[in-house]
Write a structure and sequence with these properties.
Largest sheet of chain B: 8 strands, parallel, barrel
Helix content of chain A: 40-55%
Number of strands of chain A: 6
Oligomer: heterodimer
Order of helices and strands of chain B: EHEHEHEEEHEEHEHHEEEHEHH
Radius of gyration of chain B: 18 Å
Radius of gyration of chain A: 24 Å
Structural class of chain A: mainly alpha
């Protein structure tokens, strides 16, 4: 077996999900016995056979990636309970194994994937998707780039055809529930438990956490960074749509038109909103000049 | 100190791994530490708190980068984005040398995030050395490869691990980050004499040494970095220092991390061996 074949064979074995009691499965997905697969490239020693030696790596892989995902999506874990979260994590990571050199990006596909797989959260499915979106946005806002923002004076010189860009750490999220406060509270609770225990909690509750009853209410949020901390800022629907259009590279006039499509706000109020928004965005440093390559 | 071209002729002494639970202590007390080793991947980001903390550390301390996902032994080419970000970080830290592991961990663009052992074959020697050389050329600083702890051996292997390591570093013309705890762990798991390994390493290429603790299970030992260094590992360290001369040394402690003072005190035990070795050299120099 050459090096390339060995690495493909071993990676497939290592990344195959464990059994319910965290052992290596007896058979691979194609039906071959794992003991035969292991013996085809791993040598035994006096204490462990090839299967057992490969199993150490199989277990390490899953403990590592499951731990990393649980750390990044602690609120989702609390909302759906650790048993469902473990099931979800295994299925998600089987469908989307890491494609990045860093574990930071492990959950990048989770919100979309969860939205398409409603079986894990039951009645809390839409809330769970919201929570996953917020938690992924937090990761993005935490360490994404910060570019030189435009000042209000610079923004005042723009015209209808001007194209702008959003500060890379500003993450826009459209939610079905006002779940941002819930995520903040769950993260605070997790931090408190970790600090009371002196270490990170190893066994979060199996059952979903008790939480205030949230009503379905479309909510628009920006996760963003001020100094070095991530904050969530509620947005008006029109503000969210305008910012989204700016982020997608629409000319300023088109972005504003998009923002107010189907809006019930009066013309007077719209003009007022635009002034207030740009003043706030400038203060928060959210608006940047587009990067050159995005213009071509 | 054993300064050589593989550690950019630096005399770094005894350092510890920079870990988040120690930040508050470091920033408030500003303890005297010879140097910190950082995990490169934790800082290969665009902005935010981790980089701000790193910049604060860089104002007061020497920092050396240690990577966990270059996977010199992987057959698929490294991610250009990974290399670009790594070089950006190298410029930021001014690390005199950089290390990563002699292992593989990704295939066809999918990452296991583990340090998987290589079969000790001539094919693996050639591919791995080629990749180390390429990374070293790109980064324009000395690169040292670290021997990993392993729990499996391959039927395809054609040589010992220490022969494999020697062949790779000779062909790549790179340094070695000699992890004496990993040697001990692998020796127990593969039933070889760890001292034979230390005695066979090309000493003139050792840029840095790692020491750490591990966990013993019924049938194998795991490299967990969550305990003090045990005596047999100190004996391997003493022998490595005897062969290599006083060498930049780093204690790894990554899980169940005790207080800064406890970790630092454990690391400083290495000074006894370093000074013991340095004294005859100083005598000879007089």
């Amino acid at each position: 077996m050459n090096l390339e074949s060995l690495q493909r064979e071993m990676a497939a074995a290592v990344m195959q999900p464990l059994t319910a009691d965290e052992q290596m499965r007896l058979h691979a997905a194609d039906g071959r016995a794992m003991s035969d697969i292991a013996a085809s490239f791993i040598a035994p020693n006096s204490r462990l056979n090839a299967f057992e030696r490969l199993e150490i790596y199989n277990r390490q892989y899953w403990f590592r990636v499951l731990g990393a995902l649980a750390e990044d999506f602690a609120a989702l874990n609390a909302v759906i309970g650790s048993r469902a979260f473990d099931r979800l994590s295994i299925d998600y990571l089987s469908a989307h194994p890491s494609r990045s050199f860093t574990l930071r990006n492990l959950g990048s596909q989770l919100p979309e994937w969860l939205a398409a797989h409603p079986s894990y959260a039951g009645r809390r499915h839409r809330l769970a998707v919201d929570v996953a979106r917020i938690e992924w946005a937090f990761i993005q806002a935490f360490d994404s780039a910060e570019r030189e923002p435009l000042t209000l004076d610079q923004i005042a010189t723009l015209d209808a055809d001007s194209r702008l860009a959003l500060q890379p750490h500003v993450q826009l999220i459209a939610l079905d529930y006002p779940a941002d406060d819930l995520v903040l509270n769950l993260h605070k609770r997790e931090k408190r438990q970790a600090s009371e225990a002196g270490v990170r909690q190893e066994d979060p509750p199996e059952h979903p956490a008790k939480m205030p009853r949230l009503r379905l209410r479309p909510t628009w949020v920006a996760a963003h960074r001020v100094e070095l901390s991530v904050y969530y800022r509620r947005l008006q629907r029109e503000e969210f749509l305008t910012l989204s259009a700016i982020a997608q590279g629409a000319p300023l006039a088109d972005a504003i038109t998009t923002g107010f499509a189907d809006s019930r706000l009066s013309e007077l109020r719209r003009a007022q909103c635009i002034r207030e928004w740009f003043a706030t965005w400038a203060e928060l440093g959210w608006i940047c000049a587009p990067e050159l390559e995005s213009l071509f | 100190m054993s300064s050589n071209r593989f550690n950019a002729y630096q005399n770094h002494g005894v350092g510890i791994g920079l870990r988040i639970p120690h930040y508050a202590h470091i920033f408030s007390r500003k303890p005297i530490v010879d140097w910190f080793e950082i995990i490169s991947e934790n800082f290969m980001i665009d902005a935010g708190r981790p980089l701000a903390a790193l910049d604060q550390i860089l104002e007061q301390y020497r920092v050396v980068q240690h990577g966990v996902s270059m996977y010199f032994g992987s057959v698929t080419a490294p991610d250009p984005e990974h290399l670009r970000r790594l070089k950006t970080l190298v410029r930021r830290t001014g690390t005199p040398w950089l290390s990563d592991h002699l292992c593989w961990g990704s295939v066809d663009g999918t990452y296991t995030h583990d340090l998987l052992p290589l079969p000790y074959t001539w094919e693996a020697v050639e591919r791995t050395a080629e990749r180390v050389r390429m990374v070293q050329d790109y980064l324009e600083i000395p690169v040292a490869v670290e021997n990993v702890s392993s729990y499996a051996a391959f039927t395809a292997s054609e040589m010992t691990e220490w022969d494999f390591l020697s062949e790779v570093v000779e062909r790549a013309d790179c340094g070695i980050l000699l992890d004496v705890n990993n040697i001990y762990v692998s020796a127990m798991n593969h039933e070889f004499d760890p001292m034979a390994y230390v005695n066979a390493v090309p000493a003139h290429r050792v840029a840095q040494i790692h020491i750490a603790g591990h966990s013993r299970y019924e049938k194998y030992i795991l490299d967990t970095h969550d305990h003090p260094v045990i005596d047999p590992v100190w004996q391997l360290y003493a022998r490595a220092i005897e062969r290599c001369g006083p060498t930049p040394t780093l204690l790894e402690w990554d899980d169940h991390i005790p207080s800064f003072d406890e970790v630092h005190a454990e690391a400083k035990k290495a000074e006894k061996y370093l000074h013991h070795q340095a004294e005859p050299l100083a005598e000879a120099a007089r």
